[in-house]
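Question thread 4412

I'm putting together a teaching handout and wanted feedback from people who do this every day. The idea is simple: show students a protein as raw sequence, then show them the structure tokens that encode its fold, then repeat with a second protein so they can compare. Below is the first pair exactly as I plan to print it.
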Amino acid sequence: MADRDSPIVAADATPADPPQTAPPAKEKHRWPRPLVIALRVIGGILLALFLAWAILYVTKGRFLKGTFERIASSATGREVRVEGDFQFYFNPINVKYVSEGLTVSNPAWARGGNFFAAKRIEANVATFSFIWGERRINILDLQGGTVDLRWDEAGRRNSWTFSEEKGEPLDLPLIRRAVVAGTRVRYRDPRLRLTADITVDTVEARDDRFANSIRFRGDGTARGTPFTLWGALLSPNATVAGGHNQLALRINGVRTRADITGTLPGATEIEGAKLNADVRGQNLADAFAVFGIAVPDTRSYRLRSALTKQGDSWRFTGLRGRFGESDLAGRMTVRIGEPRLLLDADLVTRTLDIVDAGPFIGYNPNRLEAQGSAGTVTREGGRPRLLPDAPLRVEALRNFDARVSWKVARVRAEDFPVSDITLGLSLDDRLLKLSPFNFAMARGTVSSDITINARREPVFTDYDIRLSPTPMGTLLKGFGVAESGTSGTVRARVRMTGIGNSVRDSLGNSNGRIAVIIPRGTMWTRNVQLSELDIGLFVQKMFEKKLEKPVEINCGLVAFTVRGGIAAADPILIDTRKNVMLGRGGFSFRNETIDLAFRADGKQFSLFSGQSPVGIGGYFADPSLDVISPELLGRAGAGLGLGVVATPIASLLAFVDVGDAKSADCGPVLSGATARAQRDTKGRPRDDVGKGTTAKSEDGSRSKGERKEQRKKFLGIF
């Protein structure tokens, strides 16, 4: 039975649906707060830059004129002023700069004036290139500009380095296009004594192209020598397109013309330029003197080479040309730096004319060309002088250092058999060394080491000159010695020091020793007989047609001791199989006089012998041979007296040579020993050779007593 209290539910009723909920809303994406802040900052900066650009573009930045003057003056340490219009803005990304009446003062040490001034200057500067360190000016329009480039007296500071530190080399920005009018550049360098004033002609442009070449001209002085220059950039439009610019430059100075042609990477770029130099003139020393470099004088010359600049060095490569009648080739580098300019050269000459070699020891090349060998002789007080007296350019040696190698294949000269010259030259702060200085001479070799110390005053020179064994016939053939029949050799050494600023002064105040050694060999007999005046033997051989029969030389030494520029025989001793030749006297570098006598004593009996010395006197430039000496005249007088008093046969006794000459010990001779060390074959000291003493007056005169002693001892000794 149904529960009456139960609720009554309809039969078709369905269960109630469960309660429904609303679908969840989609969640929004949020950026990280730091990124949002960064983007807002960047946006603000870009907006600020845009506003700044817009303001600058609209106003042309004219309101920054005062700010520009203050900042530029503070940064450069110079007074910077703009008298007229001023513009500074981005156009659109490159910086556009315009100013009228701009002046930048010189540094205080320059004592006034402006380093730079321009009536009007307009420039388009590549912004990003400046940020990354490459300074590039796309367009430069300069009107009425003046630039004052100068160094101070000490060469430490310059006007274009905006600091009190050491002056830097001039480093111009790369200029793609330059339009200038009425621009002037001044340059001053007290150390080089160089001044230049250059004016740039007006350059016009139409439709972004230059209507003509950029031409310039100017003048100046280099170490007191005036010069003029003019030139042009012949293809400026190629530079605008990023190509190369053709340069033509001519410089005219005293007796010198230099033409520089080639291409520049940019209108103001020298680094890496491909140039050619053609220099000609009357004297090569003139061109080098512009840079303060001292080189020997030359006859007229012309040299060509490629020219490049790398850093502080100017390089002349493929050098070729002539000076006088000699050729020259090689390469040369001039480095402009500290502590001095450096000249580095490697040179080659196929043929050196003897006239062109003269200036290297102080002779005037034009005088040699006009007069030949007579051009080496001058006259002082009526006396001929041969030694050159051109002074060493000591002041010029202060300006530069040098390293030079020069090789000469052949010397063109009569009776001067020199070839294969090798010269190494070094100059370091006025210390000049010629080492090695070697050359072949008459199938022998001369090796030299010469040091010229110009750090001292007066100049001090050390000579060390050595001749290797050389065939005597070849060496002396120009002096009458024939090669045929002569097999002897000679070797020699000069070891001296001298004081003086010229070759003449240096040798005139020299000390040391000169020695010529003759080892065993043979010599054509006619020369020996003429020197010893052995009349009987000479005539006998002449009639027997044996003039070319050689005379055997055991050993010989011709040596001089030099004191105060006067050389005394110490000793002259030549030992042959039949004779002993002795010499006395000497010569003077001071007044270039000669006073020598040679006498041959026979080792064998000779009926007719003058036994009289042959005298050599006069001067270096005018020597004289005296074969009729007082001794020979005395013997002739004695013979005449005997002939009158006794018989004609008795007169011959005055010319008899008993043949008692002492043979020499060749050991001391071949070692070049002094007279005091000479011995005969029995080991006894020789008493018939000089002792190397000096006692002659400056003018070469002797007292009456000295002349008497001279006659007694042949010609005496100094």
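The second pair follows. I'd like the answer to focus on this one:
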Amino acid sequence: MPNILGIAAFYHDSAAAITIDGVIIAAAQEERFTRIKHTPDFPVHAITYCLEEAGLTIDQLDAVVFYDKPLLTFERLLQTYYAFAPKGIVSFLKSIPVWLEQKLFLKKQIRDGLKEVMKYDKKKLKLLFTEHHLSHAASTFYASPFEHAAILTVDGVGEWATATISEGKGNIITVKKELTFPHSVGLLYSAFTYYLGFTVNSGEYKLMGLAPYGNPNSEQTKKYVQQIKEHLVSIKEDGSIWLDQSYFNYATGLTMTKDSKWEQLFGLKRRSQEAELLQEHCNLAYAIQQVTEEVVVKMAAFAKAETAASHLCLAGGVALNCVANGKLLKENFFKDIYIQPASGDAGGAVGAALAAHYMYFENTREVDPQKDSMQGSYLGPYYSDKEITQVNKRYKTVSHKEDDFDTLTKTIASEIADGAIIGWFQGRMEFGPRALGNRSIIGDPSNIEMQKKLNLKIKKRESFRPFAPSVLDTDAANFFDLETASPYMTLVADVKKSAQKEIPSNYHELPLLEKLYCTRSDLQAITHLDFSARIQTVHKETNPKYWQLLQDVKEKTGKGILINTSFNVRGEPIVCNPDDAYRCFMNTEMDILVIENYIYYKKEQPDWDNKEIWTKTFKKD
């Protein structure tokens, strides 16, 4: 019965996870505790939480597993600089000293980091390392409900691999094929993220959200797709790609693209972060999204042919491209697809622990075909009345405690039906990038003004960004063309034709904001420009409280569906504890906050209208 701690750190999205006898006991990202989004720092707070949740000390661990093999990464850097020499000398001089001083001595850094958590016996510590893409593969296959599956991992880059096709059988994962650096679907997508003015490693989902604003019928969009395929990327039938490095700068430079060559190719200058979004930006976003979907579909088809598996498991940063996932689902290559909810680097902590449990310690794997082992991804900390009461005293809050939870959900359902925006804080925090009903901001998706209000007055982010629906699992098929569960908000599907509104004949020619506010469906706030939605199906078994709220909303509005966005503002990590939640509530124009059984009405709070006291600005992402 091994106790295993998995760690992801030093690149971005640091995290920790702990397993006992193969059961995931706890997992959390370091950013939630330090409030520094995407932090690469050693996850001292996340490890501390995981050990406390498991009731273990470091000396009681059978292994600590790091999700990456840094010496292989260092080998890649040296070989890459050598291959491109004398190019990249500036990047070389900046990165190599960091490696020589820090990352080559990673074992010492990990041991020193663990010392910050608690004292332990160094002689007892078993420190293991998994390859980056094996961590991704393990995070999805071992957590899945499948005994046998094809496994596709796609991201920017691990050590050498940028994508892998593997086969999972029982407790063994076998790598069948891999794509290697510098040829990478993830880095190609990140290059466009950078060129269109978003931040690499955090802005890719903005690019995905911008793509539907592109005009699929315009000659410019078609030309962009053609130019990408003719000049930037060659796509093979098995989904492998070759990138023309004369257009890219990430291998040895400090930026993603050779801007002058891209400007010459597309006739479009690189957009600065806050510059106005023009139609050509939207068209370029649409073009790279189409190319990415084509590559992912080809990779999946090849994975099917290589493994003859009926099921597919996905992980890696590109697996968070839920539009591509939805396209893949429609292809019907597989009976079912499982996507690790924390598919990015944070999920590597879970994968590292599970890989050690099954492949190093050679434990037998038992699968429940009815459910995965991520427990709804509610693997973070829970806060009791004690912590809530402390917040109430600290800020002199005005709250109403409702001990009967059924009464509470009925009260909040009525407020939602009347147009209120609610901060909803319940139970254990979610692990991964999505808020799934425990750290969420929610409202009525049929409210025509909801998307605009949420973006500008609550989230304080770009107006074009879409919102997702949470829907009762039994009602999802009434609203969406989706025949499978989507508990982790990892799939996109179309809104039912019956709910769609007729759009103007010149819809695709309209300016961005006019297009955004054009009435598209009965569920306007969660219907994206292309009539799609990123769906979370809510199940009583994994989240009974959120499920009950949706049932009560259905009684009030006739629809068991809510708009659901993460409980934070732009640049801020999702709230973790009651203090985070109250301060975010007061920093925005949310109407009501619910923390467990406590209800807070904004206008009853002290200094609720004094914006200067509560305003906090985070670094824009």
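Top answer:
Good format. For the second protein you could add a caption like this: The chain is about 35% helix and 15% strand. Residues 307 and 571 are 41 Å apart (CA to CA).
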